[in-house]
Amino acid sequence: NGNAGFQQVLERLESDPVCQRLSLKSFLILPFQRITRLKLLLQNILKRTRPESEEEVQATQAYDALEKLIKDCNENVQRMKSTEELIYLSQKIEFECKIFPLISQSRRLVKCGELTALDFNTPSPKWKVTTRPIYLHLFNDCLLLSRPKE
């Protein structure tokens, strides 16, 4: 979005009749859609082959290889989403010191959200409760609490 030249070229290519007015995103998703269709095709082939035949052995091997490929693709997509979340979060969070590296290959964000912190002030005989918003960021290896910048 930040590169106007790229946007112009992309719009020109997407409007070309050869692309059939499909967006770049549809071309990026298409291989994943084909892989899942291949899995369905192999399932149907396995249903129609004779048990314990050479064709069944080959179809089973192809199906197992395709299952592994789909699993690897899904894991890589999840890893990329996790990395994108960490990059976005690292741009939003400002540390007083840069000791804690937020972006790591092994780190992923599990859950995040806003909480309300209760502060109990006890110097007087009456309990006074004040609240302030804090944010909880639970990673697979640590817990980060943050507060909005004042």
Rg estimate, integer Å: 26 Å
Structural class: alpha+beta
- The CATH topology annotation of the largest domain reads as Dbl Homology Domain, Chain A
Estimate nothing, just give the exact number of structural domains. 2
Count up the helices: 3
Mean pLDDT: 85
Task: Estimate what percentage of residues fall within beta strands.
Answer: 15-25%
The CATH superfamily of the largest domain bears the name Dbl homology (DH) domain
Q: How do the strands line up in the largest sheet?
A: 1-2-3
The gross shape turns out to be elongated
Described by its quaternary structure, the protein is single chain
Uncertain stretches of 5 or more adjacent residues: none
Largest sheet: 3 strands, antiparallel
Q: What's the short version?
A:
This protein has helices at 4-15, 24-48, 54-92; strands at residues 109-121, 128-139, 143-146.
Keywords:
Dbl Homology Domain, Chain A; GDS_CDC24_CS; elongated; 51% helix
Break the fold down into its secondary structure elements and pairings.
Layout: H1 4-15, H2 24-48, H3 54-92, E1 109-121, E2 128-139, E3 143-146
Antiparallel strand pairs: 1-2, 2-3
Helix pairs in contact: 2-3
Structure, explained:
- The chain contains 3 helices and 3 strands, in the order αααβββ.
- It is an alpha+beta fold.
- It has 2 domains: 88 residues, Dbl Homology Domain, Chain A (Up-down Bundle), CATH 1.20.900; 55 residues, no CATH class.
- The chain is elongated, with a radius of gyration of 26 Å.
